Amino acid sequence: MSRKKAVVSLGHDALGYTTLEQWDAVKVTAKALADLVEEDYQLTITHSNGPQVSMIHKAMTQLRRVYIDYTPAPMCVCSAMSQGYVGYDIQNSLRAELLSRGISKPVSTILTQVTVDPYDEAFYEPTKKIGRYMSKEDADTEVKKGNYVIEVPGKGYRRVVAAPKPIHIVEIESIKTLADADQVVIACGGGGIPVIEQQHALKGASAVIEKDCIAGRLASDLKADSLIILTSVDNVYKNFDKEDRQPIERMSVEEAKAYMEEGQFEEGTMLPKIEAAIEYLEKVPEGSVLITSLQKVKDAVRGKAGTLITV
Q1: Which among 207, 214, 212 has a CA at the least distance from the CA of 170?
Q2: How crowded is residue 110: how many other Cβ atoms within 10 Å of its Cβ?
């Protein structure tokens, strides 16, 4: 029997914010993912990396300050590092959890690059904060390097980078091959490593790609049966930040667009998830999107929790 293909997008709660938190968090996450495998899903997993890539960027910058023979690591390299160590923790925890349930299934991480347009408007107005808080002197040094910084009142200065739209997942054929072989695949971590095509070469871009955006693209490229977005809330809500907030159990793409026009979904949190859902469903209209928390996902795939979005 053919398994149901699902792309699962993991948020910060599934990973924690430090290396020790992540070590513990992925063990809990692995149980939820193993539940999905037992529900007959073939999983392709993507994940956030905001705290992780920021930590790596801080460490590599500090290393350069202490040891002048080292060069600072560019953002694309920090992204690659985060994909490797987050994937390592997820795949090992999930493999162990599956084996404890008598399931022998390969779990692997693919270092994934995603092409972006060098003329994307996001490069002219960077918005994604990364790295440590800096002094005015350090911020001026970053500006001289051609980087963007913003002042955070009362805290100092932080570097900001662009968040361009993804164009193409470079390793998509490798991901498809493993998914078609019923293996668990971890790919496009942190939105993927943003790269720019230059003739036959791929050059890393000083940018990040939104995790939810790439999840929608990955699900549509794989023609997945379902996109499962795991976040910090059990449902999508109407009037989320008000006393009369209401959980939305089901909605269509058209209803989702109407809610967007009303400003129901907060930019930077729920809005990117709804946008990813719409992008995926417009390309795979027979699919479905489920948005819920890690704790509720088992009930949600059985129709007992979460928010279901369909055409």
Answers
A1: 214
A2: 19
